[in-house]
Design a protein that fits this description.
4 helices; globular; binds zinc ion; alpha+beta; 4 strands
């Protein structure tokens, strides 16, 4: 089940600033928790973040095989067109998006 956490806390965990259109995430293996940093666009809609399509996809399940090599690093999130679950989109994280 997803929980709502303060935005700047999530930014510091995920390691990037909130992006205009992309949802970023980080699977923290030590906690067994997936953190989602919602896009500016998503936040502006005013919906409850737990009802965002990405949160719903996360609640569905995540495929451990797809995430095995994507833990503890920042990833662009995507929703699997077939299964509807949360998957890592293999895209470069731009330097200017990074907090470090
Ligand atoms: Zn969202």
């Amino acid at each position: 089940m997803t929980r709502v956490i303060r935005a700047n806390f999530v930014e510091s965990i995920v390691g990037v600033m909130r992006h205009e259109t992309k949802h970023f995430g980080r699977a923290v293996s030590a906690e067994g928790v997936m953190y989602i940093l919602h896009s500016c666009e998503c936040v502006r809609t005013g919906i409850d973040p737990r009802e965002c399509a990405y949160s719903v996809a996360l609640d569905l399940s995540i495929d451990p095989r797809l995430w095995a090599h994507q833990q503890d690093c920042v990833v662009v999130l995507a929703i699997c067109p077939d299964e509807g679950d949360l998957i890592p989109q293999l895209a470069e994280i731009r330097e200017e998006d990074s907090l470090s």
